[in-house]
């Protein structure tokens, strides 16, 4: 019986024996030498060998018992009972060995300058994050990827970081926060910024069409900005204009943009938001499938949770946010328009099931710190105020910067999205730690446990997909999507990124109520040939780097 079969059919009876392997599974070459006298006499051939694990190479091939050897920052050999020895050897018998996970949609770069350890990233087995998402990329000049790369490398991050160019940031830099069409000259400037970013190694372009100023971009503007992606076959990754009542229209628009630009399309965190929209998933799949049948390159990603995280202002209509934060807050004080804003906002709240389906995730003003982690409806009731009035007051005190988690999706639909052949796994989360400066607020648990959760809940418990399928959706599939030719697979010559875990015990522990908890069941993480996590202990050398894709078309 294969390791995958053991996980799916008999995990409960196998847990204790696998725990024994975890306790004894990470040993040094010296310990191995004691148990394998002949090996100690062999010449050192590799820096690191992971021996005897069930290897899932990232391509959906079922696992096979193999050894993996690393020299420097590259995988140098894969085979059964590799000859020679390593300076360090890991006994992975009874464990799964997979490529380091690639998070296709991450916001982990937001805190690297504060804490480059990226604890919640590394401890999930994620070795590469793809940032610059939802139309937002970092840096004073969003088109200057070389400056961004230099800044990341100065931080010496624990994980690898690749970035897309955020089209919302590009629009903000050229057009500003106003809801108006770009002039011809402005559009030309924006296109040049995108072209420059791609030439310097950006791995795609992203939009956030529920956020300002990206929401003010027309389909024609988006097509123009995405055309430089075509020759490089890099994706347009979109947080669509709407993910609830107008979901299907938004999918049609996204397809039209990618078709007009002749580039691949990546639909970010595909969801059907609000109970009345749960039945639209089959139609969504149908639209995607029809476009594929006509030759378009389309895929999507999703985190394994039924709640999303965003800014509290996202409950408010886009038109009310025209002009930026001060203009938005001014409209909340304007008796001539506030009643319309209130009506449209309350309709959005009703769509997701009411104020108790809104949890406050983060605030800036200390006055509102007690609200973090609380459901807004219940918190308002305890305070003896109307939820709308409380919301306006919090946004005013925090200058619009209030984070929220919204509970609005279907578990059954999530099964189908994760299992779909075009679906891959993302976290859509940040990087934080149980200690230090990034332990703040009440972040969505997806930032601390998405990848282990897919295996624990959707492979092992719900059996929505197989272990080899899940690993593919977390490694080779996303890596190929952004043209990382040397990541996401275990093969000679590939980057030395690995994760070793126990399929029967791997699990997420972060919750909405207690998000600062690390996953369990992951015994080894290797980033660019350097051990980043070993039997629960972090390595002392942080070996991540800023990545770029090939700057020339191919």
Description of the structure:
The protein has 554 residues and is α/β, with parallel strands linked by helices. It has a domain of 98 residues. Helices cover 34% and strands 19% of the residues. The strands form 4 sheets. Strands 1, 2, 3, 4, 5, 18, 19, 20 and 21 form a 9-stranded mixed beta sheet that branches. A 6-stranded parallel beta sheet has the order 9-10-11-12-13-17. The chain has a 3-stranded parallel beta sheet with strand order 6-7-8. Strand 11, helix 10 and strand 12 form a beta-alpha-beta unit. Helix 6 packs across helix 7, helix 7 packs parallel to helix 8 and helix 10 packs parallel to helix 11.
Q: What descriptors fit this protein?
A:
alpha/beta, six-stranded parallel sheet, 554 residues, globular, 19 helices, single chain, nine-stranded mixed sheet
Summarize the structure.
The protein is built from 19 helices and 21 strands.
Furnish the topology, listing elements before pairings:
Blueprint: H1 3-24, H2 29-35, H3 37-40, E1 44-55, E2 64-71, E3 74-79, E4 85-91, E5 96-99, E6 101-103, H4 119-122, E7 126-131, H5 145-155, E8 160-163, E9 165-166, H6 167-174, H7 184-199, E10 205-208, H8 219-226, H9 229-232, E11 236-239, H10 247-261, E12 265-267, H11 281-293, E13 298-302, E14 307-311, H12 325-332, H13 338-351, E15 358-362, H14 376-383, H15 387-397, E16 403-407, H16 411-419, E17 423-425, H17 446-461, H18 467-473, H19 476-481, E18 498-501, E19 522-527, E20 530-534, E21 537-538
Parallel strand pairs: 1-4, 1-5, 6-7, 7-8, 9-10, 10-11, 11-12, 12-13, 13-17
Antiparallel strand pairs: 1-2, 2-3, 5-18, 14-16, 15-16, 18-19, 19-20, 20-21
Helix pairs in contact: 6-7, 7-8, 8-10, 10-11
């Amino acid at each position: 019986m294969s390791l995958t079969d053991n996980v799916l059919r008999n995990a409960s009876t196998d847990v204790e024996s696998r725990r024994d392997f975890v306790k004894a599974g990470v040993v040094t070459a010296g310990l191995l030498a004691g148990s394998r006298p002949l090996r100690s006499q062999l010449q050192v051939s590799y820096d690191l060998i992971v021996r005897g694990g069930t290897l899932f190479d990232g391509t959906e091939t079922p696992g096979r018992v193999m050894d993996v050897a690393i020299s420097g920052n590259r995988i140098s050999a894969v085979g059964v009972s590799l000859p020679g020895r390593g300076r360090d050897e890991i006994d992975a018998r009874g464990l799964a060995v997979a490529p380091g996970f690639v998070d296709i949609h991450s916001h982990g770069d937001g805190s690297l300058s504060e804490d480059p350890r990226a604890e919640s990233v590394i401890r999930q087995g994620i070795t590469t994050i793809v940032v610059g998402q939802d139309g937002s990329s970092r840096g004073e000049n969003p088109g200057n990827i070389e400056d961004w790369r230099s800044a990341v490398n100065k931080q010496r991050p624990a994980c690898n970081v690749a970035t897309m160019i955020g089209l919302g940031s590009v629009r903000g830099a050229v057009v500003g926060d106003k809801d108006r069409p770009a002039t011809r000259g402005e559009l030309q400037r924006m296109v040049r910024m995108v072209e420059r970013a791609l030439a310097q190694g950006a791995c795609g372009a992203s939009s956030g069409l529920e956020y300002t100023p990206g929401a003010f971009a027309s389909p024609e503007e988006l097509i123009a900005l995405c055309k430089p992606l075509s020759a490089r076959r890099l994706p347009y990754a979109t947080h669509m204009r709407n993910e609830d009542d107008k979901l299907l229209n938004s999918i049609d628009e996204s397809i039209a943009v990618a078709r007009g630009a002749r580039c691949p399309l990546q639909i970010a965190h595909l969801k059907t938001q609000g109970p009345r929209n749960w039945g639209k998933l089959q139609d969504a799949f149908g639209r995607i499938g029809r476009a594929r049948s006509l030759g378009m390159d389309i895929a999507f990603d999703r985190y394994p949770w039924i709640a999303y995280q965003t800014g509290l202002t996202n409950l408010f209509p886009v038109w009310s946010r025209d002009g930026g934060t001060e203009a938005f807050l001014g409209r909340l004080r304007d008796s001539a328009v506030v009643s319309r804003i209130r009506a449209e906002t309350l309709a959005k709240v009703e769509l997701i099931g009411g104020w108790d389906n809104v949890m406050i995730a983060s605030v800036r003003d200390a006055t509102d710190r007690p609200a973090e982690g609380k459901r807004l409806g219940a918190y308002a009731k305890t305070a003896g105020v109307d939820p709308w009035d409380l919301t306006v007051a919090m946004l005013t005190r925090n200058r619009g910067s209030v984070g929220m988690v919204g509970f609005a999706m279907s578990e059954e639909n999530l099964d189908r999205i994760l299992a779909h052949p075009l679906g891959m796994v993302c976290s859509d989360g940040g990087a934080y730690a149980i200690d230090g400066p990034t332990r703040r607020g009440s972040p969505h648990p997806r930032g601390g446990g998405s990848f282990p959760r897919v295996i624990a809940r959707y492979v092992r418990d719900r059996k929505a997909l197989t272990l080899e399928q899940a690993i593919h959706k977390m490694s080779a599939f996303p890596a190929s999507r952004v043209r990382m030719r040397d990541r996401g697979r275990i093969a000679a010559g590939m980057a030395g990124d690995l994760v070793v875990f126990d399929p029967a015990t791997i699990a997420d522990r972060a919750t909405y109520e207690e998000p600062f908890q690390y996953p369990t069941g992951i015994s080894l993480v290797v980033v660019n040939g350097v051990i980043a996590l070993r039997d629960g202990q972090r390595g002392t050398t942080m070996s991540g780097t800023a990545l770029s894709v090939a700057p020339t078309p191919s």
